[in-house]
Amino acid sequence: MRRSRFMINTQKETPKEAVVISHILMLRTCMIKQLTSGIYSYMPLALRSLRKIETIIREELDAAGCQELLMPMVQPADLWIESDRWSRYDDLLCRFKDRKGHDYCLGPTHEEVVTDIVRQEVRSYKDLPVNFYQIQTKFRDEIRPRFGLMRGREFIMKDAYSFDVDQEASAESYWAMHKAYSNIFARCGLEYRPVEADSGDIGGNFSHEFHVLAGSGEDLILSCNNCEYAANAERCELTEPAAYAPEGDVPAPVEVETPGKKTIEDLSAFLKVSPERCIKTLLFRADDDLVGAVLPGDRELNEVVIKNDRSAVVFEMVTDEATFQKAGLTPGFLGPVGWPEDIDLYVDQRVLAMDNAVAGANRVDVHFTGVVPATHFPKNINVTQLSVARTGDTCPRCDGGTFKEYRGIEVGHIFMLGCKYSEAMKATFLDADGKEQPMVMGCYGIGVGRTMAAAIEQNYDDNGIIWPVQIAPFHVMLLNLDIKDDQVNGAVESIYTGLRAAGVEVLVDDTAARPGPKFKDADLIGLPLQVTVGSRGLKGGQIELKERRTGEKKSIPLASAVDEVVSALKNMGWNTP
Ligand code: ATP
Ligand code: MG
Fold first, then answer.
1. Does the N terminus or the C terminus of the chain have fewer Cβ atoms within 10 A?
2. Which ranges of 33-166 does DSSP label H, i.e. alpha helix?
3. Best substitution site from 20, 196, 220, 450 to test ligand 1's pocket, by max atoms within 8 Å of Cβ?
4. Which domains does the chain have, with CATH numbers?
């Protein structure tokens, strides 16, 4: 491909609207164009990389026995009413009516549609297992579309759905996909981790997320330094501390004046009590109910635990005075002692291990000291793990391991769904005894655009992108430094032809730009190898080869250009076509 015929209008300036590096670099290299919030066109350069990711996905899923199909993006409400998600799915779902007044949505995911197909086509256990996948555009009306392709409203997803005769067979399909996903991200040249994850709104009982490790990742993940256990912070288990069991009489808590001490930090400094002995109490709205959450002052709350327990669609912290007042609570001075009976209270296991703590007294400028949770808390409380795990916490799955925190970008997510959809939508088959049984399902997603963005988040430097060779839009940038020199043009053409014949994808910079900007652009666009031909070097029969990642340069004879490039690409992990 010749750059003069291929639109890459590069930009020197950092675009104002972009904050993360993948977004900045994709805009600066003309990979994507925003049409409106969270909705992008993929320009030719980006599309080449996306297609490579898709090819890797197709090869691995085909090898795992999946079948590709393509389902409609527009879905009728009836199916979503059957699965009970029409009312449960929040405003992420983009709903609309046709001219006859019938309800539809733009597919954010395709469990309903695929289940509808399978319930019509699969009759007997002999037809199972099946695993269908598609690579298709999804629409989710995200609250805060941001970071370019990382969180769009319209985005390309690979989604797959497995149907099996029983749990055991479903688990087999699940682990086959786990393996296929590991192959896919490894073949994309990415450093990734599969982690145990929360299954969220989609339902089901078991799931793994695949994260690309990158400092800018939105997710906190914890990985044990001693065993295989890794989990999303939303789901990471901690060792359960022994609850404190007081012996004999426990004195009542003591009231102390704490004027204006509304934060754990202020309270801890004022009373000279460490934050882990100050109890933090928070008030949330879970759909139509109020609930309280109680945890040690130095710990972060894992909101997902309570949200899932309530099966809540809306879960948000209460901040308005009026709600506190109606509940009989005082913001800044909340505490479990004397907590209103009509508001459910969730208490972290670590709090019940405390033997002497500080907590709010539910009155302005007053706290209690000498609080013994086991004695002074109300009796009808829900005790569970509410604390988010952090670096240094002990791993509950092995002996002696501790956690380390990483930031990750979720690029894939696999779920064991059980019979949630097949029961609701009557997707059944006849077993060997002729008995009707619900199919057992799994579903599996990969964000194709997000994977490309994550690849950039993991591979860049001050000068631009550094493409992993496997998913680079082209393998080589061939720079012609003197387009007016016939000898140079001849050499460039011979290298171009030779490389193409060897299956190497080449972008020739044949524009009239000066060498300086050409080198800058080559680094910015970040193809794995740069081959430079200029009149000065050519006089001695030499051209230059530069590896983008290391910056290493070497002069090589024109005659061996093709061999040298092919062997350098192979060293980077390129598979010859
Ligand atoms: P997130 O937690 O990031 O909102 P999710 O858990 O809702 O994502 P899934 O339903 O698991 O997403 O979707 C499967 C995959 O699709 C995700 O792992 C991610 O790679 C991709 N994806 C999801 N939402 C978006 C989006 N708004 N923009 C780009 N890719 C997305
Ligand atoms: Mg997910």
1. C
2. 44-63, 77-82, 111-121
3. 450
4. 3-146+162-237+405-457 (3.30.930.10), 254-384 (3.90.960.10), 474-571 (3.40.50.800)
